[in-house]
Design a protein that fits this description.
By secondary structure, the protein is an alpha/beta fold. The chain is 43% helix and 24% strand.
């Protein structure tokens, strides 16, 4: 059997179709009809990826995902959602989603995204992706900041923004580039959100006073650290 997938979906016909396709592709698939059943199965099984609907009875996908993230910070989580607003998508990523697909979707797209997440997971197993920022260490894989042995977990958006800034330390990263990387589009409605996440990162990095995230007004943001080698 191939990778083990937990597929949580309350629409019986869609669940049957997707499950058959995934099994035809060689995946080992188990299903659940709502968030409570999905969470129970996750706790009692060993899954390589979770694919879940957002709007479900008894416990919705977001609530289920919060509990899953407490148990397993690194299992890939893909949301299927009929919700399309930026706030809905942002909430999913803040909870810890790795990707999302809007309903209705093409089965081929679902397969492509599942394969990509599994490849990334396998790559992360063999690559300890660490960046050093002043006196901090940033583990990209686990989205954690490490300072004097203490770890702090960042949100998905915080980690993605910090990865881009830290990979270009001492250089200005265009605000449009940051928004496209995080939200897949440069939208004026995201600019305030971006500034809010920059503020959170400044607070997360506050224990090293040599670190600055500078707002290059009209251009973007630059991360600097005087203690950087």
């Amino acid at each position: 059997m191939g990778n083990k997938i937990l597929f949580v979906e309350d629409e019986a016909d869609l669940s049957l179709i997707v499950t058959d396709i995934l099994r035809d592709q060689g995946y080992d698939v188990e299903t659940a009809q709502d968030g409570i059943d999905g969470l129970y199965r996750f706790k009692t099984g060993n899954y390589d990826i979770v694919v879940a609907d957002v709007m479900m009875p008894r416990m919705d996908g977001f609530s289920m995902a919060r509990e899953i993230r407490r148990i397993s910070p690194n299992v890939p989580l893909l949301f299927l959602t009929a919700k399309s607003t930026v706030d809905d998508v942002e909430e999913g990523f803040e909870i810890g989603a790795n990707d999302y697909i809007k309903k209705p979707f093409e089965l081929r797209e679902l397969l492509i995204r599942i394969k990509a997440l599994l490849r990334r997971k396998e790559s992360n197993r063999h690559e300890n992706r660490m960046l050093h920022i002043g006196k901090y260490s940033f583990n990209i894989n686990t989205q954690t900041l490490i300072f004097q042995g203490k770890e702090a977990l960042l949100s998905h958006f915080e980690a993605r923004i910090l990865e881009l800034l830290a990979s270009n330390i001492g250089k200005t990263v265009d605000a449009s580039e940051l928004m496209i990387a995080v939200w897949q589009r440069d939208d004026p409605s995201n600019r305030n959100s971006l500034h809010g996440y920059i503020h959170k990162l400044r607070r997360a990095l506050r224990h090293d006073p040599s670190i600055y995230i500078i707002n290059q007004r009209g251009f973007g943001y630059m991360l600097t650290a005087k203690n950087q080698n």
